[in-house]
Specification:
378 residues; Urease, subunit C, domain 1; TIM Barrel; 2 domains; eight-stranded mixed beta sheet; eight-stranded parallel beta sheet; globular
Amino acid sequence: MTTVIHSARLVDDGEVTDDAWVAFADGVVLRAGTGDEWRALPAGDAIDAAGAYLTPGFVDIHGHGGGGGTYDHGLDAIAAARAVHLARGTTRAVLSLVTASIDDLAAQVGMIADLSERDATILGTHLEGPFLDPGHKGAHTESLLRAPDEAAVARLVEAGRGTVRQVTLAPELPGGLAATAEFVAAGVAVAVGHTNATEAEASAAFDAGATLLTHAFNAMPGIHHRAPGPVVAAMRDERVTLELIADGIHVHPDVIALAFAGAPGRIALITDAMGAAGEPDGAYELGGLAVTVTDGVARLDEGGAIAGSTLTQDAALRLVVAGGLPLADAAAALTSVPARAIGLAGRYGSLRPGAAADAVLLDDALQVAGVWVDGARV
């Protein structure tokens, strides 16, 4: 059956198109256009958007959980977290895992690989650790951090059976550049993050194949006028996508605007959400570490470091648009840019014909009014 969403303001391909329609069939985008052309399509389900915004489904390439659960706590926790984010427009997600032993990570990666065969909204795994700088560990258990080696890389890649989408590592660690090349050769997007890298060390990682910067500005040296650091290296390299946590806490809104200006078309808005996303303040846990959430801000009980976020992608959209970013650019940072960053451009994050029929309907206040996955409303 054909489903048509019509009379929408379509936000896709970097522009907003009034009085637009999109037709879905067999789980993919069939056609798109403007005006009443949709009436000539075979009879099906016609949905009047009444002038609401229609965007591709959001793609989160870095998030740890929500709904009280984290992605390293098993199937029920994953289901609870995905339900929270799906309701807020995240139609596809890469499940991020915090630092653990190689044995534990391999088991978790294998479990997510199995799950992704049954649930196509799960795109695979992001390994945020254990190859991180202890001095920029954030909410990771320091005793489990380690330098990468060929055996560990091979073990994790093999466990994922093609579903390890991203790995965050500190390239200045011994073996860091070799591991970068090994992961890239296996089809994994490598992100520089939780790092003490200089601008030169970050650039060397990008030359070795790294194409992402994990939650830019967080868990890395900041920008200094005599020591630009990894953020400037990423901004100046057209091959690199910068992740940003746009919750107004991790990065000041003025700095978010600076990032979009410095790397246009290369900002991916992520959640980095932990289990408290969609839940009230209180006591939580992340990677075996105790976390307390107060006024929506998650911090480690020991040391007080920020421990992920309680963000959802629709809230990130509202924050950056309120800060002055054009809606079309903000929507791209939630859709086409993250999809491209993990090698899935055109398949997700787009409403062009042939793409997955994932869509989000937003009212004038950019609140989610409807979500579709593979052409079915959820």
